[in-house]
Amino acid sequence: MRGQDSDRIRVVIVPLHNEPASGTLASILRQAGLTMADFGALK
């Protein structure tokens, strides 16, 4: 996944698992600059 936030480009590796481990999900969100609340609001 790749996105641009302000002047920064973020590249986040997302595994192709049906259900990632909670630590993996937390790491992905941290790399993407999202909180759990931000992630929950994406529904």
Task: Give a nutshell description of this structure.
The chain is an alpha+beta fold and 43 residues long. It has two helices and two strands, in the order ββαα.
Note poorly predicted spans. Answer: none
Number of strands: 2
How much of the sequence lies in strands comes to 15-25%
Radius of gyration: 11 Å
Principal-axis shape equals globular
Largest sheet: 2 strands, antiparallel
List the domain count as a whole number: 1
Helix content: 25-40%
Terminal CA distance: 18 Å
Q: How many helices?
A: 2
The H-and-E topology, N to C, reads as EEHH
Mean pLDDT, as a whole number? 81
Question: Helix- and strand-based class?
Answer: alpha+beta
Major sheet strand order:
1-2
What report would you give on this structure?
Helices cover 37% and strands 19% of the residues. By secondary structure, the chain is α+β, with helices and mostly antiparallel strands. The protein has one domain (2-40). It has a two-stranded antiparallel sheet with strand order 1-2.
What is the secondary structure topology, with strand pairs?
Layout: E1 2-5, E2 8-11, H1 22-32, H2 36-40
Antiparallel strand pairs: 1-2
Keywords:
single chain; two-stranded antiparallel ribbon; globular; 2 helices; alpha+beta
